Amino acid sequence: MGRPGLNRRHLLTAAGGLAVAGSFGFAALGTGADALASGADTRVRYWNLFSGGDGANMIAMLDAFRKATPGIDVKDSTLQWGNPFYTKLAMAAAGNRAPDLGVMHMGRVTGFSPGRLLDPWDVDLLAKYGVREQDFNPLLWQRGVIDGELYALPLDIHVQLCFYRKDVLGKAGLLGDDGRMVEVTSTDEWFDVLKRAKAVQKKGLQTIGLWTNDQNFQWWFFVAFYTQLGGQWFNDDNTEVLFDPDKATQVLEFLRRHVTDGYVIPGAPTGEQFVNGAPFTWEGNWSVPVFSGAKLDYGATPLPPVFGKPATHAESHAFVLPHQADRGGPANEGAHELAAYVVKHALQWAAGGHIPAYTPTLSTPAYKKLTPQNEYVGAMDHQATEPKVWFAGSTGVLAQDLGPVVVSSTMGSAKPASVAQTMRKRLTKLLASKNPMDGRTAAQGGAVA
Amino acid sequence: MTTSAHMSTSAQTVVAPARARTATAAATVRRRQGFQHGGWFVAPFLLLFVLFVVWPLLRGVYLSFTDANISGDGASFVGLDNYREALNDAAMWDALGHSAYFTLLVVPCITVLAFLLAMLAHNIERGKWLWRLCFFVPFLLPSTVAANMFQWLFTQGIGLINQTFGLDTPWLTDKSYAMLAIVIMTLWWTVGFSFLLYLAALQGIPDHLYEAAKLDGANAWHRMVHITLPMLRNITGLVIALQILASLQLFDQAVVMMDFGPGPELSTRSFVQYTLEQGFTSYRVGYASAMSIIFFVIIAVIALARMWLLRNREEGAR
Amino acid sequence: MTSTQIRIKSRRPWTPSQIVLTLIGVAVSAVFVTPIAAALFTSFKSEAEAAEIPPHWLPEVWTTQAWTALWETGNVTNWFVNSLVVSVCVTSVVLTVSALAGYGFARTEFRGKSVLMGIVMSGLMISPAVLGVPLFTTVQQMGMVDTYWGMILPQCAPAAMVYILYKFFQGIPRELEEAAFIDGAGRWRVFFTIVVPLARPSLAAVGIFTFIASWNNFLWPYMVTNNPDLMTMPNGIATVMNSYGIQWAQLMAGGLMAGLPLIVVFVFFQRQIVAGVAHTGLAGQ
Fold this sequence. Notes:
The complex is a heterotrimer of chains A (449), B (318) and C (285). With 449 residues, chain A is of the alpha/beta class. Chain A is built from 18 helices and 15 strands. In chain A, the strands form three sheets. In chain A, strands 8, 9, 10, 11, 12, 14 and 15 form a seven-stranded mixed β-sheet that branches. In chain A, strands 1, 2, 3, 4, 7 and 13 form a six-stranded mixed β-sheet that branches. A two-stranded antiparallel sheet of chain A has the order 5-6. Helices cover 72% and strands 0% of the residues of chain B. The longest helix of chain B is centred in the middle third of the chain and has 34 residues, at 90-123. Chain C has 285 residues and is mainly alpha-helical. Chain C is 73% helix and 0% strand. Chain C is built from 16 helices and no strands. Chain C has helices at residues 3-10, 16-42, 47-50, 65-73, 75-107, 113-122, 128-141, 148-152, 159-171, 174-182, 187-198, 200-216, 219-224, 233-239, 248-268, 270-282. The chains are: A alpha/beta (449), B mainly alpha (318), C mainly alpha (285). Chains B and C meet through helix 1, helix 2, helix 3, helix 5 and helix 6 of B and helix 1, helix 2, helix 5, helix 6 and helix 7 of C.
């Protein structure tokens, strides 16, 4: 280390002083320039939770909107996905600092105290901008309706898919004439498919990626197959648990069998295995850009209907109006116009693998050309969703309580039958518990049904 | 365990109030030269301290008796309900157990390892700066970066740890290994700090003690047992205390290595993580506050126990 | 340790025990450095190669794609600036207030001092990990969620630093100050012209430590920011970069970018930092 000369010390002092002064200036500016403070009357403040590829698509759509409607200034803020986003949106709505427009997962809407933290959409105003109920899948639209009012305007649905590698399945003779995976209608057929794929696949890899250790994925898969079996959760009044442990056991045993039959390496990274040559992986449709980017020859179908009835887990991004005491005026109308525009121009959105909720988009030639999107678009009509209660929704309390026990069954540390009983017990407890946001149980908030 | 946790606890141990009080009393006697405005020196710190330490603590106590949610309105008084629920909440005890298990694994390992590393670095005559740099450098990485590195090294299939040792262990995805992986990462990441403390203490042992012992014919082993170890007693107490308090606050590396989840079958969900989940996922600020207060009491009891031990020892030495 | 000592020592012969110890030292050092080296190598792989099974240490095809991608998306440079702003602000505030308070507690008298001192010392037990949720709601009430100040100010009341400086100021001979008082200097002037210059090594230790802690702090910035534009390095890397399917090469490049500044600083100021860590730690004895 050199001599601590006087020059160096001077230099350091000067640099240090500059850094300190600059930092304080920056920090002061950063707060001062917080553009979330309310602005001109035609300004629409919009919070979303899209980063990465989705974020880029959303920004492109916003830019298109800005060009099309120069009178409206959109100030968009991207926040981190997950619970922090909901926390922050809730706080802003409660503190009356809410943005004009927000995005949520459909399943979380019920728990978000519609009427208190969310304002209803003006359906006539939406119609003025070209968005009408008949342009949507009726079940999807109804998920956003609470007490007869529309609280969530669906933008897309995103589903769990069975991704398969055409190169491997072709070798195993598992591709049909259309170049897509053969149909599967029972568990036996499914395991037969796995067996044949395993025979020809690259050694050292797993046959299927199942996220066996991930409580979210395992929960989503459970919901899908439980729905295929026609399983129910609660009665219409949300006063009684109708969860069927026998059906649940069937599903849990099915998931478990992938591990016991050796088709899964528990814990192996699913996406990486698939890219390296594993024949199957079950993932959300958001993996489409990843696999397409890796230039794989692959297809994607909804989760196989092994229990007869097709159904795959689906969630939905939806536009919401966070509660503002004085909602109305140009900003509110601008929010309606913006949401309607994005919903109608969601082709770009489909590049992220999501299925646009606005059905006219699905029949456009441009969408029909998208692969593998065109292969799983039918999932729209077979959605398996969580029950419509306050504790449901993406990474919500329900998934957090039940996901880990599903994992424990799939991983083999608990017996499927006893796990099914545990699940029923937890559902009973949840049904009796109060929503911390408004102090009401699911039944009391149950005007929903 | 964050560096700030290290830091904020570093003086923790310290507060032998008896000593402080004597010093103050002496000062009072010695000078009364009209420094009544001395309070102004303390005021800026006190302002920040009240706003961001005292007030949140009081607020936490208040919230713990309510059913407050994250929106901050409409809270009502629920008495001891939150505490009653917490004490009966198996998930909370599990989480506390995970933090305690982590602490039990980390503290002895780090103490021994740090001592051995310090002895090594102290006794090699050449390149001291190099050993210091190598052993300490991981500590300079942000917790999340270090955790990401180990997440990648431990991942089955693409990870270099299994590859190097010819294993196929599901480190991050099996409940019997997950915490172990976090412990290994933590050892690598934080041992440097305790190592430096030991090294400084070793350098502080006067040479003449060793020289005298050599003249008496003591061999290296005897010198270590009869000089080095006793001279390091205080620093060992300090290292252990700091590590216990920091380890109990396990959060960063566990959530990052487990992709912000609770680990395989909830096996790595720490107390801090569970508290934050209650507050920010379930919106139960009242309940989360009650857990925070419980945690504060646990930490306080440990700190007081150490203080008590220290004082006993001092008195015993007298 | 001074350079003269080193020179004297390195003239000593290689005894067998020194050879063995040095070999052990080299081996152990390798273990410590390997993960960082592996991360560095991986940052020069393509994403496909970084996720290849089985893995290998060195890139087969060297590429800087991860680093350029990092640069182009802009997030990371943003976070770097944020980290710098937050750490510099925290460090300067902490140095100022804890030097004043340490001196106030050590050398001045005012009513209620000992009670206050006791309260401050019990603050040593409180950290965002312990009191996270109530601290968050407090900051939320102040309207500082998702602001720089919301990140900075709660890091600015470390009782530990006050205690360290308090101990140091107690050790300064009073005679030095008294001479100045006799010359008619006031309390503040004495503080700035005599005490602060004497305390420079301690202040450096506190400053260095605070900077490291603040630069690396994850939990509090994680709790208090949601806006990716405002995130600091550790937070952005852990949350945003992880959220869209992990790209290992980019993640390692980003991590190194977060870690390198402190490592470089350490290489240049090793002596001061080691003294600082030892000093802050040992003050606790």
